[in-house]
Write the structure tokens for this entry.
Amino acid sequence: MLNLRSPREIALMREAGLVVWHAHQAAAALVKPGVTTREIDAAIESYFVERGAVSLFKGVPGKVPFPAVTCISVNEEVVHGIPGPRKLLEGDVVSIDTGCKLNGWCGDAAVTRPVGRISAEKQRLLDVTKGTLDLAIELMRVKGRWSDVAAEMEKYVRDAGFYVVETFVGHGIGREMHEEPQVPNFRSKQLLKNGDFELRPGLVIAVEPMVNIGTQKVKGLSDHWTQVTKDGKASAHFEHTIAITKEGPVALTAGPNGEEV
């Protein structure tokens, strides 16, 4: 069962999305060599408190409840990295994923940023992963079902010589961070059999391609959260909360004038 949102509800989600966007701008100002991932998390947490927003991530249940308001994943870390004393180094890429609830509605977005000058390979990884998200938003305007979008996303990554992470997928979002449907970045028999859904006005989903340089395989670390590539090569992650309106798809976590996270 899909939760289709009214224009009024989408407008309320846009308010939450703008808080997420501003939080990402605070984080972006700190992405430089020598800064710790804990400092970035603290800046976002401070901004959420200032705006009266509730973190979607802190306290999420698990073997260990997630301890921070952001997932910060560096280089080979794919997703769910725990902020801490690690200092960013020149040449790193750092994925920052965060979300909040404002007045009962959620917003969720992620971006991978370069730390200083990065290798050409890492830059291409960032460009392709961001391009995959951009392609998905563009196709949501013209395709009728998610499986058609997912297939094109997968082909785009494969044609670039990279690998789509299949262990983690996007999700519906609204009153809660994770709602139906699941939103994979690839087409599979399972999606076609019982997971495909129609793209229609009122649908709000978090689309979040994760792309690896060398393998789609990931493994968990002993902290019970951080996921890394099995070959130790870099990964990238981009995400927007996207609403389908009668005028087409809208990134609710973009800036006031449509600026990127």
Q: What stands out?
A: The first helix runs from residue 7 to 28.
